[in-house]
## 1
Amino acid sequence: MTQTYSIAVIPGDGIGPEIISVALDTLREVSRKFDFEWAFTEAPVGGAAYDLTGDPLPPETLALCQKSDSVFLGAVGGLQYDNLPNDKRPERALLGLRSGLELFANLRPAKILPQLIESSSLKREVVEGVDLMVVRELTGGIYFGQPKGISIESNGERKGFNTMVYRESEIERIAKVAFETAIKRGKRLLSVDKANVLEVSQLWREVVSRVGKDYPQVELSHMYVDNCAMQLVRWPKQFDVIVTGNLFGDILSDEASMLTGSIGMLPSASMGLGSLGMYEPVHGSAPDIAGQDKANPLAQILSGAMMLQYSLKQPEAAKAIENAVLTVLDQGYRTGDIMSPGMKQVGCKEMGALVTDAVRSS
Ligand code: NAD
């Protein structure tokens, strides 16, 4: 019987619907080629959901995502929602999805494509060959730790505070994901912390080292976060897989992504213990170019490839999409964000159609 994958599709806001639409065409093409089927169900999240229901993450959407094989998300957010109370803001829906689906690991690859080396702000010899993966803990650490808040001191001065907290079990499970990821790649794992200052980092280091004993085939090392931030721009080729907590991972994964030149090229996966994952581009909803057919859909399309590889166990279909993207770039087609002299500029729809054609003719 033909395998059917049920996917919750969340276009979201801004450029989300444009890039999702062309990425779905590519996914449909690849399913024809590799003989499986999709059952896509669209649902609102973010500003689109707030406009419809007053809630950026309606319970029906969360329920749909929970019973799907995976979630395929565009982007959320927009200027018109910036003054809403915190619990109504579109970005809040992403936190709700991550915790509601128990997605505690964020996988963000940063790979330099030879065709786009000139788009990087770093020198060719520094970035050529970079291929790393940041595994960021997503549901713990300082973003969620209690106590947090803004209080008033006895002298009337206000004090803001957050708490960075990690339990052993939280460190263990993200470490396992990171070691498993390293096994599938170059078998080198770097754990990043601030153990020279923070107790929470001392525990982090101890637990990651302990988990490492179960993975003798992976070479484990440790680095302080300030040094890692520096090494990422000094010599990024030294890295294979980097595992780190929520706050450090937020910053380092953005820094790593910029090595590649354009945020429009970068996919990401959020995973839990099971096979369900949420796949989305690294970038936001880009309201400045929304509705103008200018968005680069490749990060969304490559997020589809990650979904096929990590959740749906269709590595050949994933590879077919990645190869199609390389073919189209080799042919000289570029969206505005990655445009360089001598290349052919295309819009979002045309770029998507070119990749879909390349999948069909591969
Ligand atoms: P952004 O990533 O949306 O845009 C930053 C810059 O990159 C803009 O100039 C934009 O035009 C450009 N850009 C982004 N994606 C592109 C693409 N695919 N093709 C071409 N150019 C692209 O970040 P921002 O401007 O800081 O945020 C805009 C909105 O997105 C905000 O509401 C923010 O909260 C939200 N946001 C959402 C997510 C998410 O949904 N995961 C992530 C980050 C930001």
Note: The chain has two domains: 1-112+261-362, 121-251.
## 2
Amino acid sequence: MKTFFNVGDIGDLDTALEEAKQVKATPYAWKKLGENRTIMLVFFNSSLRTRLSSQKAALNLGMNPIVLNIGQDSWKLETQMGVVMDGDKSEHLKEAIPVMTSYCDIIGVRSFAGLSDREYDYNETVLKQFVEYGGKPVISLESATVHPCQAFADLITIEEYRRKRRPKVVLTWAPHPKALPQAVPDSFAQWMNAADVEFVITHPHGYELDPAFAGSARVEYDQMKALEGADFVYAKNWSCPGVTNPSQYGKILSMDMGWTVDDAHMAVTDNAYFMHCLPVRRNMIVSDSVIDAPTSLVIPEAANRVVSAQVVMKRMLESL
Ligand code: SN0
């Protein structure tokens, strides 16, 4: 495996889920595979789970992880081509990437959407430069439009907790005080469309996800109707994807607190589990009562981030 960006990169999902089960049961069985191998984890943005679960997954495989926080520990990096570098950016990605990849066997990159230039974000401009100038396998640790390690962990969690062969999974938008990227809902939609589940997306008008990710998923604008009979409720805020109106890209269109997932919302589900990728703003996205209930999966979901990362790194090591 040379890249881990999209669901297609992992191949057959049943095989991947079976491998995840094995990795979870015997995490240290591949300690020799990563011997004398180095993974570099590069962060342009903050992280808690991604950083720690990626390091833990690498250590489980016997690899040496190196973490770099761009702009804090390193020079500030220029990511745009052809610019006069007379500002605060001291080094260009065109040099920084091949230098970093000369020190490692696999590279993971976190680079959030800037949310101002839709084309720049949706072309995955920064991530693609790591492929082009790095020459080593690349993992997206949340880039402009995808967060595949999260979506894979979400699928593993759904597989573990499902009580029906084909559960109903509802992705619901919820309010947030800051404009957030679309990477988490984009990837979640992409993976749920590929999985054997009944998938419904609900959000206020204007929040339509890019069709490349939403695919043929059912979109229901009435949140309560969408949640009826749900087995899994996956809450997430995202800013305007700019599908229907490109000039609104990255903007907050609604702060409607009626969309906060609370007991009244969960009451219409089939005793659904609650999921969120974290970090979560309590009593904005979800009420204390719902996230603190025994049906909340946020902690096991986060724990599965080690499992998803380890399967991906294992596959990459096997193909080096
Ligand atoms: C990120 C996002 O893409 O929504 C990371 C999620 C894994 N979330 C945030 O940036 C939340 C920031 C905040 O202040 O709540």
Note: Residues 142, 178, 180-181, 183-184, 277, 279, 281 surround N-(3-carboxypropanoyl)-L-norvaline (CB under 6 Å).
